[in-house]
Predict the 3D structure of the following.
Amino acid sequence: MPAASLYPSLALADSPPDTPWLERLWLTLVAVGLLALTVAGLTSSFNYLAFWAGVLLVSAGTLGWSRYKFGQRPAGVHQNYLWVRGSTGRGAVAWVTGVVLTGFYVVLYWWPEYLENLVRPLDGLSQSLRQRPADQWFLYGTFYTLAVLLMGVRALYKYRHSRYQIIRTVSVMFFQFGLAWLIPALLLALQKPEYYFSYFWPLKYDYLFPGTVDYLVRDGKALGVFMVFWGAVMSFVATPVLTYFFGKRWYCSWVCGCGGLAETAGDPYRHLSDKSRAAWRLEVRLIYPILALIVLVTAVLWLGAAGVLPAWFTTDSTSSIGLFNNISPIDSLGKFYGFVIGAVFSGVIGVGFYPILGSRVWCRFGCPMAAYLGLLQKHLSRFRITTNGAQCISCGNCSNVCEMGIDVKQYAQRGEPIIRASCVGCGMCSTACPRGVLNLENGPREGRYQGSQLIHADSLRILS
């Protein structure tokens, strides 16, 4: 039997086989659905019919393709031809997809009026859920949730042999549909503040801003007080406790909507993450300063609200800094963060660059919640991925599937436990390993560094 059939990573350089006609049929349905949505967005005459026809065709095509592509073949992580396909190897299809995604986010944030033809067909659904007409954010939330659900089904077919991956995928689908789409809509229908219970500070950075706290308490009354309490407790009490026991995976891989989209819609691009040391250095130089920046912004806003800062710093003025004129420097600071990090980085780059840079660009380089969780995981958590170097065959499957840019194979070859702050505990390296070398564990803290310490001691003995 050829070696490439035993170890799929060896077949990556081969030319991909022709796509079966039935798979082409399902993909054609998806393409026609996307074309219908484009027509709906560009015209107003038949936009309702084209919109819903597009949604139905995309949904049916994705579900049918997922069942045919992944449900009809043996279970397992198949990595064949990832780097030579145009859609997953930074080819023409990938670049077109990236440009379309990036363009959608740019229009969504800065020219939402051009999405009006896509927004209006959702008025009926929005009225039934929220008791108000749809807007661009309801459109975005609906598309976002639909992407997680449809591609979540794909992930369930693809990883059906792994109980851990099944439960994890169902979890992100549940939290996105329930806590990030349905419940916020129902809160608006009840004349309560819109609130996403699955997002916390510092990721949802404005939830602990004084203006937001005042709005929640004033308009939400008792429920608003609970929302503020919920956000504070989850950020400063529950997050350290849960991370101590389970690592950052409890949030990044099981709850977070950003991670949910990356693990479902972004799964075809997970292998594109840069594993170089230069990328790791860039990651460290970006993500921790961003965490420090949002901590600073939050602290300054509270100091301003408490009257500690000078009046000129908190009063609207035409001499304000940056892109935001006629507002105070303290508000400019918050708006600057929201513009650069909250919109450009997390949206335009974080999702739009999936097909080129991998699915966790935002989580890896920009998310302050990931930085906060990573520090806790690195220094306080019981979580680690243990390795058995004696069983490693250096196939590279583990490194290829790591969306956080960790060269897992190097740890596995040396038998070192993986305790990297960036690891989101998705478990894909363990799922992809053909030898069972990698295991996710929540063990005693005193054993977290044991493997690396023993190897370091052995190296010193050899050198001496």
User: Anything to note?
Assistant: Confidence is low (pLDDT under 50) at residues 1-12, 317-324, 451-464. Residues 193 and 219 are 7 Å apart (CA to CA). The first helix runs from residue 3 to 6. The chain has 21 helices and two strands.
